[in-house]
Amino acid sequence: MIKINLLPYREKEKKDTFSRQIFIAAGSFVIFILILIWITIWIQSSISDLENQIKESESLIADLDKKIGDVEKFKKDKQELELKIGIIDTLEENRLAPVKTLDNLALLVPSKDIWLLRITQKDKNINIEGIGRNPIVVANFMKTVEQFKAIKSVNLIASKKTEIKGITLQQFTFACVLEKGF
Fold first, then answer.
1. What's the pLDDT tens digit per position in 101-111?
2. Beta strands in 24-150 (DSSP E)
3. Is 27 within the bounds of a domain?
4. Pairing between strand 151-164 and 125-132?
5. How many domains is the chain partitioned into structurally?
6. Is residue 148 within 8 Å of residue 108, measured between CB atoms?
7. pTM of the entire structure?
């Protein structure tokens, strides 16, 4: 005998396949939406992190700008101090230069033959007034002064005989020009 199945198994199979396809499509759509939501949250989190990094960088830049300003101020102060120290050093050198020059000039004076009465200085000019035993001693003293390294030139202004306590001596005045730097 022949058996005939009257149940609509093909339709049920089609219906099952269709519902399975709808379930897969709906599940895929839900998974796609969840992935989009996750990507959106991740991007927003990344944007938030980058904005925080930008704020930190801007505050760091502001701090560094302040420090650069302080460094520039310190450099300016350092230059001013170096300039002041240079001026002080120059003044210190120039303060002792005339004393050293006059001391060295005093060492050139023959103690028993020449007596200096007055030494005056105006700018680079020095006038020396004194008395010597005789004209030869005065001439030798003038040559010695002329060879002194601080003196550029020596010019005789006046020389005359004078008598002090019955002794004839030679009174002299000569002008010297100092070298530059003394």
1. 777 777 777 77
2. 114-122, 125-132
3. no
4. unpaired
5. 2
6. yes
7. 0.48
